[in-house]
Amino acid sequence: MPSISYTDAVNEALERLDDLGYERGQGADLANHGPMGAEAVAVLGHGDEVGRWVERYRRAVEHHEPPAARFALDPADEASWRPALGAFERAGDWERLFVRELAEAPWREVLVRWWPRLLPGLFAGLTHGLIRTAHAVRGLYAAGEPTRLQLDELARGLAYWAARYTELPGRPRLGGTHDVPSAVAALPRTPEHGTPGPDMFRRRFASLGDLDGYSEALVRLAPQQAPRLLSEMTVQFADVYLGHPEVFPVPLVHGVTAPAAARLVLPHLPHELYEPTLAALWQVQVGFLLCMTTDRRGEGTDAWRAEAADLPPIDELGARAVEHGDEHVVKFTEACLREYALRPDPRYPAAAYAAQQRIKRLDDGGGVSRFVR
Predict the structure, then answer these.
(1) How far apart, in whole angstroms, are the C-alpha atoms of residue 188 and residue 115?
(2) How far, in Å, are 3, 23, 59, 328 from residue 33 at the CA level?
(3) N- to C-terminal Cα distance for the chain?
(4) Which residues, listed in sequence order, are joined to residue 166 by a DSSP beta bridge?
(5) Model pTM greater than 0.70?
(6) 63 phi, psi to nearest 5 deg
(7) Cβ neighbours of residue 267 under 8 Å, at least 6 residues apart?
(8) Residue 178 DSSP SS3
(9) Per-residue pLDDT tens for 301-336?
(10) What span, in angstroms and rounded, lies between the C-alpha atoms of 287 and 179?
């Protein structure tokens, strides 16, 4: 057992990471994963390793300077804040707004107020606005009495979501008749010459609304109870991840980590926000599939069993992820193990293990790439 508690480990990490900006990388503008990765290391039961992991992470890649606040945003005036959605140069203004809001009201109240405003832009930073917010929420809930560092981290998660706010075309709705596996199977994939990569992703993303099958897919999914539908989403995308070793190994992990992150937040939201959240998650998953894959490849097959032939025991996967170090591996492994505890499908641990094999170790450059944010 770690000698440092989860909450103490998280607060120590947040203090060490406090000076980092929202993004990192030379010309890549990748999301800062430090707070998310450190929190996941602690959740995996390795609180004693959090400090060492933070130092490895800081050495791995240079982060940008924190953005400065310039012009105040008025949360009560939609004409003040709405034009700043998706304006990354206003990230400092967004952070100042949320810090002020969280100083004046309970964190759940602020979360509930802003969730429906930010939800249409869920794709923000490849869903890292949502994911960073969810990791912060888990820490706040566990703490009981939140620290300033934890409240500031929630402010930054929401601010990054707002500053990178990205609406996808169309309006998703849970009004169809398909479950997730059949909806994914019905989605047409467009062949591509060569290996799928960043150019293909950018080109397809720019015309996402015109891609074959996109609009129909947005209304194909049947409504279900949130816990069950989230499990369908995560296990299906564990399957997708296993089925596409040809795709750069980082972006597709978010098909699991985004809905797994939403699961952490939904208990703190009113029930009427569940269905629009699930619909928005499905829209993002449709976008991932159409922009990043060109066929079904190994989806829905047991081809993954060959890659997972030497799969270690479940209780070793977390330690292996922490030792591996890459922030995506850590977060993905934690999400897969958490989802596996709710639905013991072997594709979860197999996908976590596959990511540990496909993604470079943190000290070797990790998953940093110009593919996407």
Answers:
(1) 31
(2) 24, 8, 13, 8
(3) 35
(4) 122
(5) yes
(6) -100, 155
(7) none
(8) strand
(9) 999 999 899 999 999 999 999 999 999 999 999 999
(10) 17
